[in-house]
Amino acid sequence: MADSTEFTPDKDAVGAIIEAALAQGRTSLTAPEGKAVTDAYGIPTPGEALAESADDAVAVAARLGFPVAMKIVSPEILHKTDAGGVQIGVGSAAEVRSAFTTIVSNARAYDPKARILGVQVQQMVPAGTEILIGTVTDPTFGKVVAFGLGGVLVEVLKDVTFRLAPATKDDALSMLDGIRAAEILRGVRGGAAVDRDALADLVVRVSQLAADFPGIAEVDLNPVFASASGVMAADVRILLTDEAPVARRRYSREEILVSMRRLMEPRSVAVIGASNEDGKIGNSVMRNLIDGGFAGEIYPVNPKADDILGRKAYKSVMDVPGEPDVAIFAIPAKFVAGALGEVGRKNIPNAVLIPSGFAETGEDELQQEIVTIAEDHGIRLLGPNIYGYYSTWQDLCATFCTPYDVKGGVALTSQSGGIGMAILGFARTTRTGVSAIVGLGNKSDLDEDDLLTWFGEDDNTDCIAMHLEDLKDGRAFVEAARATVPKKPVVVLKAGRTAAGAKAAGSHTGALAGDDAVYEDILRQSGVIRAPGLSDMLEYARGLPVLPTPKGDNVVIITGAGGSGVLLSDAIVDNGLSLMEIPPDLDEAFRAFIPPFGAAGNPVDITGGEPPSTYEATIRLGLEDPRIHSLVLGYWHTIVTPPMVFAELTARVVAEFRERGIEKPVVASLAGDVEVEAACQYLYERGVVAYPYTTEKPVEVLGAKYRWARAAGLL
Amino acid sequence: MADSTEFTPDKDAVGAIIEAALAQGRTSLTAPEGKAVTDAYGIPTPGEALAESADDAVAVAARLGFPVAMKIVSPEILHKTDAGGVQIGVGSAAEVRSAFTTIVSNARAYDPKARILGVQVQQMVPAGTEILIGTVTDPTFGKVVAFGLGGVLVEVLKDVTFRLAPATKDDALSMLDGIRAAEILRGVRGGAAVDRDALADLVVRVSQLAADFPGIAEVDLNPVFASASGVMAADVRILLTDEAPVARRRYSREEILVSMRRLMEPRSVAVIGASNEDGKIGNSVMRNLIDGGFAGEIYPVNPKADDILGRKAYKSVMDVPGEPDVAIFAIPAKFVAGALGEVGRKNIPNAVLIPSGFAETGEDELQQEIVTIAEDHGIRLLGPNIYGYYSTWQDLCATFCTPYDVKGGVALTSQSGGIGMAILGFARTTRTGVSAIVGLGNKSDLDEDDLLTWFGEDDNTDCIAMHLEDLKDGRAFVEAARATVPKKPVVVLKAGRTAAGAKAAGSHTGALAGDDAVYEDILRQSGVIRAPGLSDMLEYARGLPVLPTPKGDNVVIITGAGGSGVLLSDAIVDNGLSLMEIPPDLDEAFRAFIPPFGAAGNPVDITGGEPPSTYEATIRLGLEDPRIHSLVLGYWHTIVTPPMVFAELTARVVAEFRERGIEKPVVASLAGDVEVEAACQYLYERGVVAYPYTTEKPVEVLGAKYRWARAAGLL
């Protein structure tokens, strides 16, 4: 059934109608124009025709089928009902004939001067579930299609879902399941299910219509009536716009990868504004580059110094030998444009603009000036208004913050410098293995989609986590995310989720914060894992690369603390995971290891006083049995099995199975005195995502891994 | 309007009907009985009467007003519609006459043996919003009244809310606002608002009915039609039960306080099963009592030893001098009953039962035996199956865990031992000031309501946090919570929230886990702050006693990191707090301190490169201005203002204002390298709730404080 919608709309007809309406300076289509447009896209609306005589009306009604609605058509009569010019549920030929006469004479009586063009005879819409289908033009994502249940469910409960337009049939079907009241469409209280295929088909057609014509600002089909026998849009409203979407410079995937490789794996870098003076950014950057151990060439540029930190300094970047891959700017904003021209003439492909004082402080023109210079010279810009960036596997620390050297699989980016510092501190305290940390700041050029494209290809990166407040080009981001997600998880913290947050985003970056409902659905559609908060983003970033990908849905809890088992079960459900129904043979196998008063089933409650051997035997069984796909461990600190004993046995067993090729996600919640903290760190470094004093976090990270595995099509 | 519902139901009539039905072995009332019951409680239902003849029917219909519904009445015909025994919308005398004949003959044809008592003629219900009002008998809370919008909103979206029965008029009005679709009742899409007073009045009456009669198991008014002109229950269903509610032994508030004071502030304790042998529980308990520094007498009881850890040992508790306040049991389950009898004869009022091997391992009879012994002797039991308890201000560590000595204001309790260990570890690592930690285990006697009653009075306790999986007596808990909440916050982590969690709770404690929807609403009604997870409970417990109570709703964010400002704004909204609209004069006052490109408004974005003086000036202004009630700080780690400099200035300013009598909650999110961790600890210890690497947690704790302040009636 999926993607079965194929149709050949009459685009020329629609194009002509829109063009004509715009030419008349109109911002909406009339009802007959709307009807013509929907007909051209095969969008079912009530059949109708203009009848100029009673005979005509009877013939039309017979063709459409009874009952029909009849309405006066006169340019002078706007309020048809007031004029006695509307009759509905007209059920037979005789009634149609009589209604025609009545309507016309009512109209004449109402306004003797009105020109009467005839009576519109319209098919009555069959009863059904009320649906809203529409499209809007989102500032971030462009044309977007919306679907919800009409009436109070949309209006009061805001139960509506969005996808990029055009939507595929699969997208459309996912929308039918994407609303909270989805069950209604499947039939409740004895009602029949609606025709899902016809409904999804309608979504596809409407979304295609909006996508085909930049001149269409909004489409509203409200209500659509859906029943077991089909769908019909009872009312159509189409709004127009003559604003052309702003064209944004796009680079090809190849172009992006070439310049990003030189940015992230440079052989040499120039530091413009390098300084010997403590406390200067140009000094911190130089120190960090040197102390970080960068193996390539570092060229300090400073017109007033002969050497910087013992390295020969150059008066101008033009004097630097060769062609560095990156120019790092540590000079005040007002000098950036001049130096950037030199960087361009030197053919340096990347400029990292640490200085602030551009769009974020209202200096939009200054920012536009440097963007123009960069485009003229083919320079890609990172920033301005950033802390710089780390490329850990290159020992490259091109920032004014402190160096970071724990190499690993997660690449992190942040739009805000403050969040970048939080990333750094968190990574350091948890010893999270990092491939890169990149500040994006004002995103005058390079943004999340460029970075995603690179990190998707980068072999050192297993997981990408991004803090962002807006997207300059939502479509480019979705494209890059879709190309990346099948290979590695992408975590997104979208700040400005709420109305208050979005307001703050506006004042901070001058960027229009998108409507969060649209972001929510479209980020999900693109396969990224959205983190609800900063702390979640950081924990997902730390944990996802550590966990192997689950091969199925069956999660089993093994716990020494019954109390933890209950809370872990809560967390399993909260995170959309499945507590495995344990089959009898497996239940018996677990029971063999646990005291008679322990509870098998799931959670497997081994009880609190058990020795290490009970933990080990049950964990082994959990890893061994191929029907189990993930383990959640609940540890209870006792004298019999101290924290590090538990950590060592668990890490050892997991490693042993991994060597045998059996890799399952294992996460753990450790309840105990402070020694559990070291035990958790020990476990984390050995591939078991473990947390003290919380039953929620380990399961949240496991849940994020599952969400990614599903989005990547691996489950 | 509140609590204006006063009515005098005819209880005798209802009692007689229920008694008669139960005497006949029935578990439900017939429609006429239901009608009589609702009439007795003034619950509006359609007028109706039994007609034995067609003439009768016409007369009744004329009295009620046309149209009417007509239904066969026969004890043998349960499915009236199947029997052709129902007609609705009968609109005239002639139609009533004909309907009577048809219905009766249909019924005779359907079942020739059926006794036909006549035809019920019923007023048709006026149109309105469909509502569900009902009552159930909850295993935890007893009679509970439910309210929701009928139809799909209840059935598909489970949009329903609960309160204890009987509900007050205020309770009932809060239910109208307590559903997600509350807006519908206020009128949407041009519809009129329903008569809220009549609707709330109906809730009160139904809840009173259920509360008055233990024999009523369930009441279902579904649907009730509510409109601007009133309410009417179209269908009434009343289910009966002859199961008497299990009586639970209750102690008076005075009795509880007397024995709890001796438990928590004992002058002397006896340790039954005290031991010199390392690794034995009776050894750990003795060591902890001694090492913890308990100043009262400690009497080891051990028939085989002369002294234990250098203290004279007694063969039996009977030999101990005086009358200890507490007997701590560290002997196997099978010996408990015998020793407990001696404890009773010795007049010791409290027994702390550490041993496991009772109900939690299926030994229900053994547990019942000790409960009976305790009741016979007037001993209160803590446990069995617990780690013991800490009474920090008494330096009392009556557990087999490690001692804890950071005295402070939070009392923590846990049903599970594992969670108790997590509490201990968390408290130690965060240096949380604790007044008590108490294990509740099987709760054979003492439970949360006893502890709440005590901690509510205890001057050392400012905040109470409880982990629980069930409540033995929900009503007693609500009563204790309501008495305590106006004085101090009560945080509850209710485990087994989800269906999967509840299932695990069942297997763990043998307790029936209540329906979480009921728990959710009734815990809120009782004013407790529900923590969504273990980590939240611990953070609330740590943070709430530290924060002063806010005096108003206006929250202001002051941030050095614009990015944090956006995330903090998100968190403000997520936690139901209000970002203050900054008046122009205050805006100007803030602007005087921040760079021209900084953003005033709210968040106040002082920008990233600012010196300590900018943080200090803006924080001072925030504390000084009486229109601001709470501050949320976003710190960004820079060389100009290092973490400890920020922490010291913030703590100093807050302390200075506190000395001047100006106390406002101040929370902080610190974004930076690892030094921010020490800065957070420094701030926390000085009354500022501060967290590194998260923008969510500080605002969550502030949100919990606001929830409490509202529940306590302080806002």
TrEMBL record, chains A, B:
Keywords: ATP-binding, Nucleotide-binding. The keyword Nucleotide-binding applies. It holds the Pfam family Ligase_CoA_2. Residues 35-71 form the ATP-grasp domain. One of its GO terms (molecular function) is metal ion binding. It comes from the Bacteria. Gene3D superfamilies: ATP-grasp fold, A domain (3.30.1490.20), ATP-grasp fold, B domain (3.30.470.20), NAD(P)-binding Rossmann-like Domain (3.40.50.720), Succinyl-CoA synthetase domains (3.40.50.261). InterPro entries: ATP-grasp, ATP_grasp_subdomain_1, CoA-bd, Ligase_CoA_dom, NAD(P)-bd_dom_sf, Succ_CoA_lig_flav_dom, Succinyl-CoA_synth-like. In the N-terminal section; belongs to the acetate CoA ligase alpha subunit family. This is CoA-binding protein. It comes from Streptomyces niveus (Streptomyces spheroides).
